[in-house]
Amino acid sequence: MSDDLRMGVIGCGGIAGAHLPAQRAVEGMRTVAVCDINEDTARAAAAEYEVPTVYTDWRDLVADDDVDAVAVLLPHHLHREPAVAAARAGKHVLCEKPMATALADCDAMIAAADEAGVVLMIAQILRFRPANIRARELIAEGAIGEVRNVLRRRLGKSEGFRSEWARHPEQAGGWVLYGFGSHEVDMILWLTGSEAGAVFAQARRNNEYWNDHDEVTVQMALSGGGMATYQHSLNCPWGAWECVVIGTDGAMMVDSARVRLADRVIDAPLDSAAAFRDQVGEFLRAVRAGDEPEASGRAVRPTYAVLEAARISIRDGVIVDAADL
Ligand SMILES: NC(=O)c1ccc[n+]([C@@H]2O[C@H](COP(=O)([O-])OP(=O)(O)OC[C@H]3O[C@@H](n4cnc5c(N)ncnc54)[C@H](O)[C@@H]3O)[C@@H](O)[C@H]2O)c1
Asked: Could you say which of 146, 150, 154, 199 has the lowest number of CB atoms within 10 Å?
């Protein structure tokens, strides 16, 4: 117990409801402080998860000597400042996706963690889902040959999202591009073991509720010689969330629960709580081992280079080379 990694949670909104139980369930980790600008929210989380200390200013939590590591679970535009401050205070950082909404902010976070010698991990939860893990292994083993084309699409109708900041592009960075795209682009690169080169993206505003681009398509060249397209709509009455990967020697389809190949279906059921426990467990492992975690800040930087390239491409109507960013 005395050797437990003592966690401080900054932001006790929706996703804290997945991180707090995961922190409680992982042996060797203990939540010692929570912070939310809304005191009632922070107190409710502290009561539910028996956390002894409550803050309403993250600076106080970061200054707390009893906190070894922080989980930054804030709206997108607020990730950089507490992540950098926590690293400078010698605390390990697990930050929710998107890492940030500008590559310069990502780089500041990576530099702060490097200088302080602390772990910086981004909560790319899809990397901890069994179907994605299996698909990645199969691609690496050559099950479909060399990757030539990745078609990833996510369709749905999610009007009514409860957090107001998600509808403010200057805070969310673009709810589709950064909120969802940080998952989807990361999966394209991680599944295929690629980085991206040329990126061309288009976006449209469709439903005024979103006050933002709610139809997005991002096309990219992949470093292994393949190409990929990510398509997203928030205005489609039926849902779809799948990834087709086509190689020189076959193809696969990955969804939340299985991987389909030409000759077989591999079931890999999703247990969302288990994925969050595995994510938090990986953070703890890296802190203990003093090495890089899965989805370290550095490892996910190529994802955020693609998002930045896509943002510029949408704005200026040009092709942007993510490798130059
Ligand atoms: N992995 C996933 O699938 C997943 C799902 C949902 C959200 N997320 C990510 O988690 C992060 C948080 O999203 P959410 O859905 O929990 O948002 P939310 O709006 O539900 O919660 C954010 C919380 O932060 C608090 N807050 C705002 N400003 C603050 C400040 N300055 N100091 C302290 N607290 C402050 C708010 O009061 C709120 O309780 C985002 O980065 C989001 O993209 C990830």
From this structure: 146
